[in-house]
Fold this sequence. Notes:
Layout: E1 175-179, E2 190-194, E3 204-210, E4 212-217, E5 221-230, H1 236-249, E6 270-271, E7 276-279, E8 287-295, E9 303-304, E10 321-335, H2 336-343, H3 352-364, E11 371-373, E12 376-378, E13 384-388, E14 391-404, E15 407-420, E16 423-424, H4 425-432, H5 457-467, E17 471-474, E18 482-492, E19 497-500, E20 504-507, H6 508-516, E21 526-530, E22 536-539, E23 543-545, H7 557-567, H8 571-585, H9 591-595, E24 598-600, E25 605-611, E26 617-618, E27 624-625, E28 645-646, E29 649-653, H10 660-677, E30 680-681, E31 690-691, H11 697-711, E32 720-725, H12 730-743, E33 746-751, H13 752-757, H14 760-773, E34 780-781, H15 782-785, E35 797-805, E36 816-823, E37 832-839, E38 851-854, E39 860-863, H16 865-877, E40 883-889, H17 896-914, E41 923-930, E42 937-939, E43 954-956, E44 966-971, E45 983-990, H18 996-1006, H19 1021-1045, H20 1095-1098
Parallel strand pairs: 28-30, 29-31, 29-32, 32-33, 35-40, 40-41
Antiparallel strand pairs: 1-2, 3-25, 3-42, 4-15, 4-24, 5-7, 5-10, 6-7, 8-10, 9-22, 11-12, 12-14, 13-14, 14-15, 16-23, 17-18, 17-23, 18-21, 19-20, 21-22, 25-43, 26-27, 26-34, 35-36, 36-37, 38-39, 41-45, 43-44, 44-45
Amino acid sequence: MGPKKGKRGGGAGGGRGEAQGRGEGGAPSGAPPSSPAPSHAPAAGRGAAGPAGAGGRGGRGAPAGGRGAPVPAAAPGGPGAAAAGGGRGRGGRGRGGRGEQAPGAGGVGGITAGMAHMGVSAPPADFPALAPARAPAAIPAPAPAPVPIPAAAARAPAAAAPAPVAAAPPAAAAGVAVTMAGPAGVSSRALVAAARPGFGKAGRPVMLLANHFKIDFQDLVIYHYDVEFSPAVASKGVMRAVIRQLAITYQSQLATSGARGGPSVPVQPVFDGAKNLYTARALPFESQEFRVVLPDRDEGQGAGGGRGGASAGRGGGERRERAIKVTLKIAQQYHMASMDAFLKGRQADIPQVLLQALDVALRERLLATLSPVGRSLYSASLGSTALGGGVAGYRGFFQSVRFSQQGLALNVDMSATAFHQDMPLLDFAAEFLGRGGGGGGGGRGGGGFAPNASLSDGERVKLRRALHGIKVAVTHRDTPRRYRVQGLTREPAHALSFTIEGQGETSLVAYFRSAYGYTVRHPNLPCVMAGGSGKSYLPMEVCRIVGGQRYGPKLSEDQVSNLLRFTCTRPDVRAGEIGKLVAGNDYPNDPYAREFGMRVHPEMTRLQGRMLDAPRLVYKDKKDVVPRFGAWNMMGGQRLIEGATITHWTILNFAHYLDAAGVQRFGTALAQRCAELGVNMNPRPVVPPLTGRVDAVEAVMRQLADASSRAVPAGQWLQLAVVILPGRGTFYNEIKLIAETQLNVVTQCCLVNHAQKCQSQYLANLVLKINVKLGGRNVLLQSESIGRLPMVAERPTVVFGADVTHPSPGDDSSPSIAAVVASRDWPCANRYGCLLRTQAHRQEIIEGLHEERRAADGSVVAGGLVRELLMEFYQSAKCKPERIIFFRDGVSEGQFYQVLAYELESVRAACRAMDPSGSYQPRITYVVVQKRHHTRLFPADNNRDKNGNVMPGTVVDTVICHPREFDFFLNSHASIQGTSRPTHYRVLWDENGFTADSMQALCYSLCYTYARCTRSVSLVPPAYYADLAATRARLYLDGVMGSARGSGSESGSAAGRGAGGGGGGEVAGSGGTGSSSGSSRVGAPPVVPLPVVMPVPRRGMFFC
């Protein structure tokens, strides 16, 4: 048989915990890499009047073959990991499969040599005939059949991305018909959302306030007009200015006849900043063109081949007028009576555009004085603070019109985000790149750059991404001008030249000297490419960043901390601020609110919620714990329910000021704490502790590989490396990448200040993480221990969690990363496996859940993330799951049904492919988990915690929830500071017959099983783990892309948040082998595969 193609691997990273990957496949140690395609050098040509030619993209390596390295045997009580096939090569630098780094790849070549592994047999291709664990109870009859979800249409197969399988319509799930437009390959049909099965009754009543303000509305007709601009306008601000000017200039032509022949009444249109205009009265035409004249404020004149060109000095740079043709065309009209009918249950659906029109109308007046960012509005006048690095935090507020059980409501919440400060561009660049402080003040800055300073390629790329799209004002002219930054030149200022008509070629430095009498002081720095074409060049030193623009790059840790301190307020303070804000916005006197027939009530919504009882927890020897206020401790002699056995381990010390005695003292204390908590850890490291520098991580890892090959007996492996770090930094990312994808060892990082103190609570937190990374289990719900976990214990059930993480703003090439986790045990649900997948840039739908490819013999071979995780469940639980509960994180409301249609069908297809007869169809419940919302709950009675927040277990499924669909808000955690945010659960699909109480009880109970701490968490652990795993995979990907393209090719994506922290500070992740879905849009950047996660790390829950 030929080698199998490996699945992708990875894990999650960051400050909340550390991750290890779980996955399959890869070439054995020493396997040669496939021949990579050549990388192309950047083109060196210089444009006659423009930027230098762009460099080509590096080639992509071919898939590596080879059979998977043997996998170590499963730990007691855990499933055996499966051997699998080869991974995929990487572009330009040709990495091998899952084994060691290929020569020339820049990693740790041969680092896995000498690491012996014990093999286990591969999983069966399909579920064999096996009786269920128990005779299943009668499955309840499904609710009335909905319109079926469309079958996923087969796509043309691509490398590593077989087309999803088309399948028969799924079983019925009761609900409300919602019209949706399916994703590519899925036809548009009516989808049925799960209807609310009733309201929950469990728990005791509590009185609450919610930041929803009721809206009364009139029975009006809303008119929707399409807007077209010619020439096209890219800036939303400019588009809004054009529409405002149109409303003033053509006021009489937009007026409607008055009542009973009275004077005409001006129409007050509202505009969404894109292409939609709404009015509450019909305009006197169906389609009409208007000519609007605006002063041209932004596109000035520089040097080079842009619009300024050779005539940059003419006329003193006076402001020119800009004429824009605007076409308004009627698109549709909507009756507000339909909104009333929908809210009262007389109508099945409501056009979203109607809700959007009302939302836009309530923002229109506020936009005159506030800066919009998404659905939030900001201003320094509402409060601001310096965050450092030329960045300021502005206060603002979010507002959105929503429908709920009380009717229409305005959701208002306080918010804050980062904006650029007004400062010289060179000063910002110096701070952003860590070149020291800038010059400050009102001059041209440059205090961080010497006159002969230059930028490396990496610095230039990083700065280009940070500056792209922002506006700068020039300081070398008497007349102020503004430009929009399009990029930075590859060449420094002194190397740029262009042709002036009738004068011949001249250099940029000479042009600025002759035209403006200005001598360029930093000729070795690149120039700003400005203007609409990006071919007007400006020396960086003559540019000043215009303050008040949103800051796009990822904030540093210090900036994030400063912003959190700025926004963190107690619940009573936040509620008061929201109340004052609503009063200050003066909605009763808003002319646009009156025009559209709306009246916003000034009081928050008062409602009754319920407080659920916390579940009892069970440790070893039946020692129970009852959490209080969402937390508990292990001070009563509790031991972990299933402790791992750690025979072969070591310590790596990267903190040079911690001596050998300190390292030994820490290792001894850790082993003792393990023993106290029921983890059987060898008191002495099998490999003597190693010491190294953070700038030589690779060398230390190579040294560890050599030492462990001598110290660990043949047929066994190094299980754990405890890593002591001097602080937070990129060396953490490098350690994780090498250890988990090359060295084949689980790591646990900790900061040196914690290692020196050896505090019992901190060591206990380390033990919790270490135990689950090595296959142990920490705690059980009492309902799990007696087989009564709601809707899980009754019949074999697998619990999935899934998330997709996208690159940071400004990154236009890095792939998105999908992470899927699934429980491995039953009737418990607290041990999870994980697989990871890169996919097309900013693609939200998970495309790799089910795949098919055609083998050489013409047969169809099924694969995909769901199949692999179902096989892991089967191997561990020894039964087929009859129920699937799928928690999906990271989906916005506008994507609910598009994502559901594709992913639900993919899960179904994966299940059918597990049985040769195609009859295997477990019942599926699909739940979207939302944390990024703005609903806040405030206590209105004495049921509050010490910080004034609502108590853990507070649940709401009335008044502010959806009129008919199955959703609820659950506050499952105790917030340490600030105002707690409940999690919003939306059950989009339910074939398992959940009641409101059973779903709420399941979600709340699971929140107490999070493996990394002795506290309940804010969202169900499967979704939490998926988020951590995706973050770890991003850390891997940044390392891959950085090494492949050089230090200047930062992906701009969210990297891991560092090791350490109060509880060991590591995030976990798991994953399959490093591969991608292979599916990307035409013209989109290629999808870079993840590196392969090795067998030892991927055995456990090392995303913890």
